[in-house]
Amino acid sequence: MKFFLDTANLEDIKKYAAWGIVDGVTTNPSLIAKEGVSLEKRIKEIAKVVDGPISSEVISTKASGMIKEGREYAKWHKNIHVKLPMTPDGLIACKTLTEEGIKTNVTLIFSLGQALMAAKAGATLMSPFVGRLDDISDDGMALIADIVQAYDNYGFETEVLVASVRHPRHVMDAALIGADICTMPPKIFDQLATHPLTDSGIKKFLEDYKNSKK
Ligand code: E4P
Which atom of ligand 1 is nearest to the CA of 107? Predict the structure, then answer.
């Protein structure tokens, strides 16, 4: 399972990349807006830190504009994945960019039907938003299970990137289902890596070691 960071904050990306387990980075216009830098500048900075897929999202709503933006983004770095909204125009852009050898991430997916459409359009990655489904009392992880099953039935190569992750349970459930990738806000990396029993265990070991030397 691949772990992506879901942030455009360069300090956080550097911090967690140093752990050696960051396989890629996802951004979106809201995350870029928080940073107060241009998309191009930040994506190029991220590409210097993480050697893996980096998602850069288009702003256009028409296919022609998305294709133009996508072609431009693809020139920035070989790891760029053009993030396209799951709309009919997004599908047209996905198909066109895929045929040109440009990698894509079809985003804002909330149903199995949309997941099938993204795979049919040749998306490299597709992003179902589990947290936003849970927020409206739907079941985000049930959607992931359905997508993984359906893609497996037909051998679709599009990778399932679990997005809108809110807590470590989402990541563990995604792993049990067999999703390809989870993209997580930085705090989830900390939550996954730590446990109170680990902390108290270290404390006790160190106390016992100190006492044994008296
Ligand atoms: C990542 O690709 C998505 O843009 C992101 O996970 C959305 O998360 P949110 O629902 O917390 O905004």
Answer: 2
* Atom number in ligand 1 closest to CA 131: 10
Per-position pLDDT tens, the chain of length 214: 999 999 999 999 999 999 999 999 999 999 999 999 999 999 999 999 999 999 999 999 999 999 999 999 999 999 999 999 999 999 999 999 999 999 999 999 999 999 999 999 999 999 999 999 999 999 999 999 999 999 999 999 999 999 999 999 999 999 999 999 999 999 999 999 999 999 999 999 999 999 997 6
In terms of Cα–Cα distance, which of 33, 58, 36, 55 is closest to 46? 55
Q: Check if 83 is active-site.
A: yes
Q: Is the CB of 6 under 6 A from ligand 1?
A: yes
Ligand 1 near 105 CB (within 6 A)? no
First to last CA, the chain: 47
- pTM for the model: 0.96
